[in-house]
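Give me the fold.
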Amino acid sequence: MNILLGLLAIVVVLGIGFLMSNNRSNINYKGIGIMLVLQLFTTWFVFNTKIGKIIITGISAAFDQLIQSGRAGVSFILPNVANVGEDGNPMNVFFLDVLMIIIFFAVLLSVLTYLKILPTIIKYLGAVISKVTGLPKVESFNAVNSMFFGQSEALLAIKSQFHHLENNRLYIVSASAMGSVSASIVGAYLEMLPEQFVLVAIPLNMFSALILGSIIAPVKVSKEEDHVDIKEVSNANSFFEAMGNGALDGGKIALIVAAMLVAFTASLDFANFLISSVFSGVTLEQILGYVLAPLAFLMGIPSGDLIQAGSLMGTKIITNEFVAMLQLTDIMANQPNELSDKTIGIVSVFLTSFANFASIGIIAGTVQGIDSKKGAAVSKFGLKLLIGATLGSVLSATIAGLFL
């Protein structure tokens, strides 16, 4: 029954994308089919094979070591901060234990880029995806690039190609940027959610963004137009300059995330105050839970968890993934039997992306800085972009649910 519901959810997601399509006769069904198979294989391999579990455990252990190293840096500048609760047990301080870790990950990202390690991986992986799926090279490169860099950085890396991008191609690269996550904040996610779900969500979301983008805004590019001339992401002149640039970028990201969390959490609290003033005991999260419960049901979430899961999903869409992740983390820590393991897995995959209202402004602003006309185009299809990216998150989470 759960498998049938999951397959139905996939059909519904792809069907909505088809109804939204700008040019249905141009859809690359073969490429979409290949990417769906790759998603199913990836998820099966990670969740259901011994080798896959060993690989995820190894990657998780590597991230754990990186996180510990990041904490060493935090402890060096704040050695006297008491990280102990009233009961004497260790107490998690979100800004120190999550946000500050972003700085170290940003440094690693910057150094790997300067050393040409990441650009080489991205270049060849993008070429393989383009060859296998038949998608244009720029879109394939950008999808892989978006797995490592933030929304703005990924789009800036293809700025020299923007004159080739008509609106449909612009939609696909924007969808990849919105449907991805930045490697610099993966460590922060791993501090809040189970590692296997965060790590599997990264490739799943890359393919989901390309699948939905290829349905909603299908493209066909001639061989003359299908070439990649990518601007180097790193502008550092030395190893240590790359470290310094990464540290500064990571600090900015941490402060931006902190500022957004303050703004969104406070706004959510105020919205709940206004709603409860009119409807006693009702919160915005509860409303979102009921609105998204049917979708959660199709995704394979058990009936007893539908409202709670829908609430978390809705919170992520209207605020950002960190707000929803913190709520899920609180539930797992303080109400361990509130949600089933399957629900936690599906919701975790759904939350691991930038698909929210705030991302529309970030992406449109970045494109505006590159090309004002194309920035205006992104602003016009901004809501369609959010719907497509959210459908991509639903697709990824549903596929993960098939194997849980």
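The two ends are 13 Å apart (CA to CA).
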